[in-house]
Amino acid sequence: MSVNIRGFSLAEMLIALAVSSILLAGAARILPFLQRQTLQLIADVQLQEALQQLIMVLEKAVRRAGYCNGECQGEPLQIGGQQGSCLLVKWDENSNGKWEGRGRENSEFYGYRRRERSLEMQRGVDSCEGSGWEHLSDPSTLAISGLTFARSGAQIKIRLEGYAVAFPQRKRVVEAWVSGMNLP
């Protein structure tokens, strides 16, 4: 009994190689596009997460503003800066019945502002001006392009806009309405 074993012919092999080459060339052209899309998606998710974390810090400050375990004097929340880009708040952190003032180590005055693509915070301030503010965001990776506060009664609207430095054309905006629980 004879078994007839036959392989591929040269023409069949050349056709298979040509089809494979065309498919691989197409995949090689699509791969960089897919990689860029993946990097943009990751940057978008990280940007959204970073902005959400920053707005949560601001929300927490608004909720605390005005708390006093006694008779505190003064305005507990002020919006200042250009176009409402700075927030000054006071709260009785140590529950001693008064707001510890500016310049004290345990001051209960806090400020939040946008300056040069960064969200900044400082303890012990009663003005949006001055130096010594610390970054809450890293301007080398995240650029804060907008920050505004608006007040309607005890409600504060916070609007934060930013972009990943690697993808400046892909801006994101996060907004929140927060109830100041201790505001008049």
TrEMBL record:
<dbReference type="InterPro" id="IPR016419">
    <property type="entry name" value="Prepilin_Pept-dep_B_prd"/>
</dbReference>
<keyword id="KW-0812">Transmembrane</keyword>
<dbReference type="InterPro" id="IPR051621">
    <property type="entry name" value="T2SS_protein_J"/>
</dbReference>
<dbReference type="Pfam" id="PF07963">
    <property type="entry name" value="N_methyl"/>
</dbReference>
<protein>
    <submittedName>
        <fullName>Prepilin peptidase dependent protein B</fullName>
    </submittedName>
</protein>
<dbReference type="GO" id="GO:0016020">
    <property type="term" value="C:membrane"/>
</dbReference>
<keyword id="KW-0488">Methylation</keyword>
<dbReference type="GO" id="GO:0015628">
    <property type="term" value="P:protein secretion by the type II secretion system"/>
</dbReference>
<keyword id="KW-0472">Membrane</keyword>
<keyword id="KW-1133">Transmembrane helix</keyword>
<dbReference type="InterPro" id="IPR012902">
    <property type="entry name" value="N_methyl_site"/>
</dbReference>
